[in-house]
Amino acid sequence: MNPTNANRKIIAAVDRSHFSETVARYGQWLANQLTLPLELLHVVDRHPERASKSDDHSGAIGIDAQEHLLADLSLEDEQRTRQKREAGREFLANLQSTLAGTSNQSIDIKQRLGDLEEALSTEQDLTSVFVMGRRGRSAEMTHRDLGRNLERVVRALQQPILTVTDIYTEPSRALFAFDGSSRCKQGIRWLANNTSLRNLSMHIVIAGKDNRANQEQLTWAKNKLEKRGYPVTSQIIQGDPETVIANEIAERKIDLLIMGAYSHSPLRSLLFGSRTADLLRSATVPALLLR
């Protein structure tokens, strides 16, 4: 284990969608690679949707009726939350059992009541990498390409986040979408420090002009990883990053994309923030987002 990972873990956020086993298997792969324990985390919404019979509360009601209504709604919420928690515990136990026979590391399960962003934020100091599905139960129902929680959670967290697709394939060929930014350089250093990932063939790409500045940046990144034992190729390709990355993934049969993520700066977010979502939508492989 790398000393920077001491006393840390991998957290896979699962939500009872049919994508959850894939999320768990990518979490297991990463935990095995980094020799860290895996935690399967399920968050139960503290504000479950109410039954339709209670939806319409219009009209004038007396104080006593109001009190009874509030008591009924509170009881409904409590019962519905209890049912969700019981279903969640069963779901986590089954998922843990599914992974147990193929894991080299310990697998723990945890269920929390509340908000996903809040639950993950409180775990940051103890977590090396978070793993999330690119889509969750909301996207499962609506066929959206990105789950409603993903962008919000990614913006809130400071640790790397592995966002995964619907089907599990063990990664062996990675593409690092490098732009010379401090965040990408930090990602190169993170990979260099985690040498247990050097079984990945690494292809570093700058989508931009083939000038001296980009050549120097690319040489720095390539040398940094090669010195730590990674097999590395590198290339500068002119063109729109979304198109360049998508073409490279297809042509080189890449199965893991590594890239920078959203910035907290409002201006930088306005200029570059949507690029993360664009690349996630166009990429057909899991993406390790650097924070």
From TrEMBL:
InterPro entries xref list: Universal_stress_UspA, UspA
Natural source organism: Aequoribacter fuscus
All residue ranges annotated as the UspA domain in the record: 7-164, 215-291
UniProt-listed Gene3D superfamilies: 3.40.50.12370
Protein name listed in UniProt: UspA
Protein family per UniProt: Belongs to the universal stress protein A family.
